[in-house]
Backbone:
């Protein structure tokens, strides 16, 4: 599946610069983890669809932490092509492109999985997934994708890029002591379970679009 062709814009809006997390923010693994857990015989059929629920149930099994690391390594490596784009994210990317908004991906993603049985380059797998979906058409070319080795390095990159907004599914990123206070944090919280904090909670990508693009688009 590739994204539909974006509507081109003649200029770039330099007043809004939006950073995006990758895993579980743009890339949706719920269906893939359900498939892998079933294939590996870790959970019975008709198991939960949420990655978080699958994680908790697998970790509760004997040797569960190792099994969860194995599923993660498979999902982020050799099976990455089966991940889906988050519902509504394509519309957001299209709107940002239409209004000349600068987008950048900043992800805390190691090159290799913790599970030793999978040796795929996880960053390369993610890059191939983005290429297959046509992210370059939205300005998300390789030079605008940053993979960092730690959360601290991710926060530092967000600061260096002088972003106006950052979208992430982990509230820990916004609670990091070095997260720049002049960057508007947008927490992607589709289940509505995050505690209040110095960020705006959004349940859908349509809400994220309103929170980040509302000033330039009558959404």
Residues:
């Amino acid at each position: 599946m590739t994204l539909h062709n974006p509507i081109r814009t003649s200029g770039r809006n330099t007043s809004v610069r939006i950073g995006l997390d990758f895993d579980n923010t743009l890339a949706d693994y719920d269906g893939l983890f359900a498939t892998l857990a079933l294939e590996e015989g870790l959970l019975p059929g008709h198991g939960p669809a949420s990655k978080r629920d699958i994680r908790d149930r697998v970790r509760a099994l004997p040797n569960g932490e190792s099994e969860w690391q194995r599923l993660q390594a498979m999902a982020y490596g050799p099976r990455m092509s089966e991940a889906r784009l988050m519902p509504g994210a394509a519309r957001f990317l299209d709107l940002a492109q239409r209004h000349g908004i600068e987008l950048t991906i900043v992800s805390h993603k190691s090159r290799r999985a913790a599970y030793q049985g999978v040796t795929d380059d996880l960053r390369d797998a993610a890059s191939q997934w983005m290429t297959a979906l046509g992210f370059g058409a939205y300005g998300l070319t390789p030079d605008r994708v940053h993979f960092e080795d730690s959360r601290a390095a991710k926060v530092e990159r967000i600061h260096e890029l002088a972003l106006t907004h950052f979208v992430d599914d982990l509230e820990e990123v916004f609670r990091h002591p070095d997260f720049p206070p002049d960057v508007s944090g947008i927490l992607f919280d589709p289940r509505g379970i995050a505690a209040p904090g110095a960020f705006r909670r959004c349940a859908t990508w349509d809400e994220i679009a309103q929170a980040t693009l509302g000033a330039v688009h009558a959404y």
Observations:
- DSSP finds eight helices and eight strands in the chain.
- The first helix runs from residue 30 to 39.
- The two ends are 26 Å apart (CA to CA).
- The chain has a mean pLDDT of 91.
